[in-house]
Every structure is written in C-alpha cells, then in structure tokens.
Amino acid sequence: QLVESGGGSVQAGGSLRVSCAASGYTVSSGCMAWFRQTPGKQREGIAALHTGAGMTNYADSVKGRFTISQDNAKNTLYLHMDSLKPEGTAMYFCAAEGVISGTSCVGFDHWGRGTQVTVSS
C-alpha cells in the first residue's frame, strides 16, 4: 500500500514536499517514482529513483527544481518541489516496484491514490 501526503496550496515560486509512505514492501528494493495528472490529460512521469542502481531521472519540466529521495528507515519516498509554477497544479501520485528501462523506470505494480497540489499565480 502507498499513501501520499503533504499536498496543498502554494503560491508560484514557493516550495512543497510531498511524501509517500509504503507498507508491504521496502522502498529501496526497486524503482520508485512520482507522477502527476490533471483532468483530461495523460499521467506524466516526473521523477524516478532506484537506489540499488544509483539511478535518478527527472522529466525536463521539473529538472533542477524537484528532488526525489527516500528514507529507508521510514520506508517513505519524498518529492521536494522548489520554484513551483502554476502549471504544476495536479494530483501527484507515487508508484512502486517498477523495473529499470534505459535511464528510467517502467511497469509499476503499485500506485497510491494521490495528493493534490495547487499552485496559484
């Protein structure tokens, strides 16, 4: 089970950290990732992490502003978001137990229900 938290409303240029608490498996055992989705649009992968392979990957839209990390002791995945933009308004989802494909991850077996992030201009 994956449970996201930490979403909310923030002004453009602000920062926010969302969390994803995992139960039933360990976050360090495979690919973990964050996605976001707005109504009527396709879900977008924005950050992926595989600590065993030493891999992180970011979408161009968030590169340099977002940081994905995990706390193995808390079995929790994080996404720290800086310099937020209004187009970052979306539901943010975490995903677990993907497999590496090239420089990113695919085929996630588990998904959370999401946490809403709203960025106002």
Oligomer status? single chain
How would you state the average pLDDT, rounded? 95
Sheet/helix structural class: mainly beta
Low-confidence stretches: none
Share of residues in strands: over 45%
What report would you give on this structure?
A hairpin with a 4-residue loop joins strand 5 (about 45-50) and strand 6 (about 55-60). With about 120 residues, this protein is mainly beta. About 35% of the residues are buried. It is globular, with a radius of gyration of 13 Å. It has strands at about 1-5, 10, 15-20, 30-35, 45-50, 55-60, 65-70, 75-80, 90-100, 105, 110, 115-120. The strands form two sheets. Strands 2, 4, 5, 6, 9, 10, 11 and 12 form an eight-stranded mixed beta sheet that branches.
Compact summary:
This protein has 121 residues and is mostly beta strands. It contains no helices and twelve strands. The mean pLDDT is 95.
Keyword list:
121 residues; mainly beta; eight-stranded mixed β-sheet; four-stranded antiparallel β-sheet; 0% helix
Topology:
Layout: E1 2-5, E2 8-11, E3 16-22, E4 31-37, E5 44-50, E6 55-58, E7 66-71, E8 76-81, E9 90-101, E10 104-106, E11 110-111, E12 115-120
Parallel strand pairs: 2-12
Antiparallel strand pairs: 1-3, 3-8, 4-5, 4-9, 5-6, 7-8, 9-10, 9-11, 9-12
